[in-house]
Amino acid sequence: MPAKPGASSSGEIVRLFLRLGLTAFGGPAAHIGLMERETVERRQWLNRERFLDLVGACNLLPGPGSTQLAMALGYTRAGWRGLAAAGICFILPASLATLGLAWAYVRYGSLPQVQGILYGAKPVMVAIVVQAIWNLGRSAFRRWPLALAGIACLAAVMAGASAVWVLLASGGVTMLAASRQYRPAAFALTWLPASAGVAATVGLGAILLVFLKLGVVVFGSGYVLLAFLKADLVDRLHWVTQAQLLDAVTAGQITPGPVFATATFLGYLLHGWSGAAVATCAIFLPSFFMAGAVGALAGRLRNSRAAAGFLDGVNAAAVALMAAVALALGRGALVDPWTCAIALAALALLVRFRVNATWLILGGAALGLVLHTIAPHG
After folding, report:
1. 174 in a structural domain
2. What is d(CA 291, CA 203) in angstroms, rounded to the nearest whole number?
3. Does position 12 have pLDDT exceeding 90, yes or no?
């Protein structure tokens, strides 16, 4: 049940999600792993089943899934005030970091070198995701049909199937299975050298409309966002070049927090500081309302057997999607004996000694900088 809104719970939400926004590298799956550890294991704001319901429902929404999960968790803890606090605190550090990179890009023609930080931090994030999959999988695959659904979903995603269709198909099958035993119920869920330079100044109203639309229609990962941005900003409107767009997406990926902070970088290129603010607000604004609906409805859906069956299937698929991302993240992060050792050490510290994940990320980043300075990699 959501906690009664108050200064204490709101302050707790601000501290947690501001810290996550400053340290959460690795993309949505890693963000979910961190949030599960902090809100379910350490703080016990909600049980693992409710957390999984929020994960599954947010995966069905357009927009930045892990950011919407942060908002829904804030709602669960302290209502609409908690949702706003969680969303703003998770988004703001990424947007400010990306804005700093945009300023450096325009002024110096390059992005600051951050390979060392990522070299050490990404293996830690792999360990965090692996632990989260183990924890969430015990709930998501509590019955053998759900375990089979998870395996099928993992195979489908690895074969190239759309994540959204996999989620819907898994939910639909399990809902039908539940409906055969119970009465049907209505259900609705309605860095890098570059040829930098600022594009021709674009009006703030146009920036607002384009990025607001993106916040409503973009499903999936940062790579899907790249496709939508290319179609609108490069091909249709000619606001930026493809090279500038790729650099913007890179900036969003090398900073902690949501990849959708790419919008901040692009807004700065298009209209300076005010453009950055407008683009950021516009692309994230729809998520506040959609995440609020998820936070309000997710608990009630468990009262319907058919809806609960749908959520069980979606949750099994969501954990399978995390496993697919973990495999991809592992291939990119575990590139030599050092990174493998960092990941194994982080996993041991997480499981055996329950070390705070934030300290592990910071430690991995510091070690990565040292190793990268001594012997540069890749």
Report:
1. yes
2. 29
3. yes
